[in-house]
Amino acid sequence: MKIAYLGPEATFTHVAVQSVFTSDEHIAYSSIPVCMDSVAEGEVDLAVVPIENSVEGSVTTTIDYLVHEQPLKMVGEIIIPIRQHLLMSKGQVHRSKDIEVIYSHSHALAQCHTFLHNQYKYTKLEPVSSTSAAAKLVSEQPQECIAAIANEFAAKKYGLEIVASDIHSNSYNHTRFIVLQKEGSSVETNYFQKNHTKATFVIMMPENRAGALHQVLSAFAWRQIDLSKIESRPMKTGLGNYFFIIDVVMGYDDVLLPGVKQELESLGFSVEIVGSYSTIQL
Amino acid sequence: MKIAYLGPEATFTHVAVQSVFTSDEHIAYSSIPVCMDSVAEGEVDLAVVPIENSVEGSVTTTIDYLVHEQPLKMVGEIIIPIRQHLLMSKGQVHRSKDIEVIYSHSHALAQCHTFLHNQYKYTKLEPVSSTSAAAKLVSEQPQECIAAIANEFAAKKYGLEIVASDIHSNSYNHTRFIVLQKEGSSVETNYFQKNHTKATFVIMMPENRAGALHQVLSAFAWRQIDLSKIESRPMKTGLGNYFFIIDVVMGYDDVLLPGVKQELESLGFSVEIVGSYSTIQL
Question: The complex's ipTM?
């Protein structure tokens, strides 16, 4: 099977893919939309992209592209712990007090805010497209006193030294990745259990109706269906117009979830169940 | 009065500040947290920072820093239309078909996705810290065939030419800015009407209780209080733990909003009303 992931190599998404899809071909794509396009166009069988971090919140590109641009089916969820380290070229390690620029993904810089504020208050922080790209950039300029924030895998891949480890602020720092498949695809994903434990709804409000969200939640609440997440995202039609993405703690069934969908649709909501799946927590 | 804003000069925040606080001193700060610290520490009287864009959604740094790090009072809201243009140095305009790198803030690059995909599919896109920083960077390298996406004010300030105007994808593209003041500060902000039309709540769930959000919304719904926004953000204590930021379409009163707060607190929620204010829409 071919698996697209948000590259370059040695990103956290790559770590998630390598841990689960041990015997498949992994192909790096340069952005989340391109990953998702590749599975929609049949270049690959599955795509793995980040959807939420426990500190930074949702990866809005993933949610927005899925809802507005490229409908795909969620067939699995992978959760991995995120550990960030400060990396330098071997020859520069003795100058770690005098780092001129620290490169990383903006989320990683934010996750390490406290460490950076305490140790590198006056050092320039430069956001780049991924933690892995930051490590690559540092490895390509061994004569410069610069550093990257990235994972251990990136340190190994680019031959960098870990100058400070586990520099992220929250000890509970995890990222959720979703596994996406083309609607109607018959590829079997045996990696995930058949007993689905979660389902994801995308719900659009009929108009800017007062109490509409309350109505939506009532449909879940009286059935005692637990929500593990609710997130509003802009409809892109104006401030104040949102759609909601809701994760429920049960898989698709024949009665309850179809009941929610039918009722809300009758009330004028647009309701899509974008996936029913199980979770692999590493 | 001294007003802190998210700089550098010529950002959209600067445009918002200049439009409203016409006769005050405006001081640029390099990041949203630093803006907010400056008002908390009394260096300035007010701070203006972005909180939401109609296309990209919330500015999570603002919400998270306000809730987790630096409590301040919201005393006003400014809404401005966002118009993005492609800018080049005058001497490079004839080479606009061969641009090598386009710099901008990551949100602006996302807002112009369709234009970029159609016209500059193979051009390298490079996120930098602000649209204004992108314009400055391009102006400093007039010999390079590079471009920035930024506003008209930045084009004027850095002497760049507009090569393509209004390249943002959604014609309805607005950003909301909030005006923040230190709790207990006596500075009068005469710029905003006394008739408050909005209030903002921050609500934390007592535990991961099923139906808790439904309960919160019920407290607003039966009083027929309209919500203009609800957003979940991570508590940073683990995937699945959120707080909610809720905007209601009424100002603080003596009965209804205190009633919501008291009831929810009795039920074990933590409830903070972080502001009651009016809006200036430009």
Answer: 0.72
